[in-house]
């Protein structure tokens, strides 16, 4: 499943190529609770077709009505410089637009975005380049600027800058049943997923569409994958010959999440093995996670995948997880044995 921003931009590009009027809406401010984060985008065509969202639905309905119904008092134009709209200023308005209690958001609307700039932006994004899209508020002129550093949306009196780039990526070592569940969930969350397994009996029967499957050795795959700050590497084979070298290769990269499945005992053994035989130290292994996942009492492959995906998303979003959902901590508190099939994750 492709990154949602890419889907929105491609759709908008195609509308503009076909000569349709369209507007690009970007969330630029939120106060209190908000259904969508700053930087979220939505495209709206002149006939009311929408892709993406800026809220839970009611604001979209208002934008559709104002953009498609010419002649109404608060109708939106089909052209001109960008405009700001603010929703949820009063309690009554927040209720009307379905915003959470105290929620207010502001969007910038760009009318008939330039087709060629959309084409150029998508061409750069398709090569894996991270891009700043700079919009001059006086007239809507767009300037594209390559960058190496992800950034939050920025806005001042002259310019709106939103950063678009390669979506988050997940590399899974092992093509077993749990990998299928995890890959499916990761795709739903907007990750591009690659699965590596040199064992033909596993990789040849992979059944999740949209996932890149390779049969090269895992450490070579990690090197080819080139994990960046938007990448995670997760080892699920339970086989040290496959997992260990791949994890070591990943630890040399800026991947935001690196982890391996296994019980507390197995994870301790992995660390001891890496330190004794692979010249690692506790410091060099500081970013290696295990047991992976959050504690939800999971025992089946789909439940374990939910646990792992939840932890990946928490790390991605910068959420500090409390001790009482850390798998190792909870199992230690419960005094459970560090082995067995029910003990290797959340």
From TrEMBL:
One Pfam family matching this protein: XdhC_C
XdhC Rossmann domain boundaries: 170-312
InterPro entries: MoCofactor_Util/Proc, XdhC_CoxI, XdhC_Rossmann_dom
Domain (XdhC- CoxI) ranges: 15-69
PANTHER family, per the entry: ALDEHYDE OXIDOREDUCTASE MOLYBDENUM COFACTOR ASSEMBLY PROTEIN, MOLYBDENUM COFACTOR INSERTION CHAPERONE PAOD
Protein name: Cytochrome oxidase I
Organism of derivation: Candidimonas nitroreducens
Lineage, broadest ranks: Bacteria, Pseudomonadati, Pseudomonadota, Betaproteobacteria, Burkholderiales
